[in-house]
Design brief:
single chain, alpha+beta, NADH Oxidase, four-stranded antiparallel β-sheet, binds flavin mononucleotide
Length: 319
């Protein structure tokens, strides 16, 4: 494979990353052997994500796929994060270089890129084996983040209370609801209606975000859900990028062992519940996202904008 072919393949992998409301807030500039990853400011959600934190996490996930696809193809891929303080939206530069063999883990994870999808439907009650949980925790650690598994009724109960509180704040906010509706069923971006899950029946522990917001179908969800919170040391753009790398490694690791996952971002998005989450769960860092993990029917892949629409060649600056 040539460097050109590897980069093309890696960009196709990058755009399969998850992103908040499927906004796909990334742009790439390719000047071989370098690939620049830029934050697309026009796609940062002003209501749910005013600081761009979740957009940078999404870009971190795309960076993970980009790097992994190069490595799996037998190329070295070295990442320089936030290389230019004068250009804060240049999130990373990836240098693709002389070949070296992929490790078995890189090969296995790379195969999971096109199988991973957010699964918002109920999971069954089969417990997740401790060895799989340890693999998810280790995946976050490899990227220098922590995955805090809420494995006590008290921790899970506290999280669920804050989740309901934050979900209520967002549900009652017409501006939040309008933004959510604007990003539901968009075509090549936004969350397709078909990817939404049923509304958890009254009395369910977890409040799940509804795509579309007016969905009324109710179903029981898992009785004893498995929830984990991804935590970074700080809360800088570098931490957000790192959170994205860790989140994607966790999600792909879950896919490899047959687990599904969906997101429970509401308490991390609403400022006062984010603070409460940190204090009440005694987290030694900043919560960046929360995941529900379990066994379910595989979810379908959602659309993406084509690579050409998000890539510029040579020295052109992305508009
Ligand atoms: C930082 C971040 C936060 C997200 N938060 C939520 C959420 O709270 N609820 C939800 O259902 N999906 C959430 N998602 C999932 C996205 O909607 C999903 O990744 C996107 O629609 C693309 O679909 P896919 O993951 O199936 O490829 C989040 C994704 C990211 C990256």
């Amino acid at each position: 494979m040539t460097t050109t072919e590897v980069i093309e393949q890696a960009l196709r992998a990058a755009v399969r990353a998850p992103s908040v409301h499927n906004t796909q807030p990334w742009r790439f500039v390719v000047t071989q052997p370098l690939v620049e990853l830029h934050l697309d400011r026009d796609r940062v959600l002003p209501v749910v994500d005013p600081t761009g934190r979740e957009a940078r996490i999404s870009c971190g996930a795309a960076l993970f796929n980009l790097r992994l696809a190069c490595q799996a193809a037998g190329f070295a891929a070295v990442v320089d994060p936030l290389p230019d303080p004068a250009r804060p939206d240049l999130l990373a530069v990836l240098r693709v270089s002389a070949s070296r063999p992929a490790t078995p883990e890189q090969t296995t994870l790379a195969h999971a890129i096109t199988r991973r999808a957010t699964n918002r439907r109920p999971f069954n009650d089969r417990p997740v084996p401790p060895a799989h949980l340890r693999a998810l925790v280790r995946a976050a650690e490899v990227e220098r983040c922590h995955l805090v598994v809420l494995d006590t009724p008290k921790g899970l109960g506290t999280f669920a209370t804050l989740l309901r509180r934050a979900d209520h704040v967002q549900e009652q906010d017409p501006i939040f609801q309008r933004e959510l509706r604007d990003w539901t069923d968009g075509g090549a971006d936004g969350v397709p209606r078909a990817a939404g899950g049923p509304r958890p029946e009254v009395g369910s522990l977890l409040a799940l975000r509804q795509y579309p917001p007016e969905s009324t179908v109710e179903r029981p969800y898992e009785r004893d859900p498995l929830v984990a919170v991804l935590v970074t040391h700080g809360d800088t753009p570098r931490d957000h990028l790192r959170a994205g790398l860790a989140m994607q490694r966790v999600l792909l690791t879950a896919t490899v062992v047959g687990l599904s996952a969906s997101f429970l971002s509401q308490p991390v998005e609403v400022p006062h519940t984010r603070t409460a989450l940190r204090t009440l769960l005694d987290l030694s860092g900043q919560p960046q996202t929360a995941l529900r993990v379990g066994y379910g029917h595989p979810a379908a892949l959602t659309p993406r904008r084509p690579v050409d629409a998000v890539t510029t060649l040579g020295t052109e600056v992305p508009s």
